[in-house]
Amino acid sequence: MVTALAVGVPVASPAHAIANGDQVADGKYPFAVKITATGIPTPEGGKRNSSCTGGLISPRWILTAAHCFRDAQGNRVARTVADKTTATVGRADLTGDDGIVAKIVQVKQHGEADVALARLDRPVTGITPLTLNRAKPRKGQKVRLVGFGFITANATRTPNRMRTGRFEVTSVAATEMGLSGIAPKKNTSPCERDSGGPYFTEAADGTAVVFGVVSRGPDCPHLGPDTATRVDTIATWIRSVIKNDVAPSPSPPATTEPAARASEAATDGAAPQADPVASYSPVLLAAIPAAAVGFVALLLAGTRKNRRRSGHRRRR
């Protein structure tokens, strides 16, 4: 089997797009990225076009597969090789105008794992990036995959709308893991040009955590596993590349009531004021001389009497 993957030359057996997947609604999974390369050099001296999938992990950096960036000889390179390489972010329907299209201006190869990081020429705002997983995946764990690849093995054009499917971790190796489709069909599987697509989990608060990156597998659609690179084993390297590239925090709203704000800050989170009567303890009372105890008792009785009278007045 020969599969033409991503932004390089045709190679044997590497990875893919989502066959038998669901179409993704507009605005869903905005961190998904389509990487488009126009004018890739070929060994014969010509040019061709191709694409990959990726995931936004910070305002300027995309996580994808290393083999998405190769020269005419098929060697992985830490640079773009096409005449033009762009990233479409936040756009489930590629014919629409949601999100942004930015140029990829820098590539960092991991060197061992089939993972690369691509830097954009401008930051993406208004989209929450994927969070990097730090824990070892578990066999049987359920994850989701999104991609912009082909939906059949013999396709010649990628679909205009992003696809998604559910997968289960079937094996866990030192740096990779196997995943098999479970929904919407048992043979839901990544296809050509889904390379670099993120396998992720979804939390109740909307946080998406990326566990793996599509690397290689059989022609689609198929039963059984594809291979993905584990993110937890390379998370330290990823952080060393993107460093402090994080989304800016929004500025707090202005206010014209500094005194009120200071008062709220002073009382926010403070323990409720205790009732003075309830705060007396038997130990403390035992330490008070008898005369003083009697005096205190008279004071308390007067206080309770006044409270009852005051209460009657409020009910009238």
Automatic annotation (TrEMBL):
Domain Peptidase S1: start-end pairs: 18-243
The organism sits in which domain of life?
Answer: Bacteria
Biological process (GO) annotations held by this record are: proteolysis
Q: Which Pfam families match?
A: Trypsin
Keyword Protease in the entry? The reply is yes
Residue spans crossing the bilayer: 283-303
Arranged from A to Z, the UniProt key words for this protein are: Disulfide bond, Hydrolase, Membrane, Protease, Transmembrane, Transmembrane helix
The UniProt regions of compositional bias labelled Low complexity, in chain numbering, are 256-267
MF annotations from Gene Ontology: serine-type endopeptidase activity
Specify where the region named Disordered lies, as residue ranges.
Answer: 245-274
As given in the record, the signal peptide range reads none
InterPro entries on file: Peptidase_S1, Peptidase_S1_PA, Peptidase_S1_PA_chymotrypsin, Peptidase_S1A, Trypsin_dom, TRYPSIN_HIS
As for family, the record states: Belongs to the peptidase S1 family.
The entry's protein name is: Secreted trypsin-like serine protease
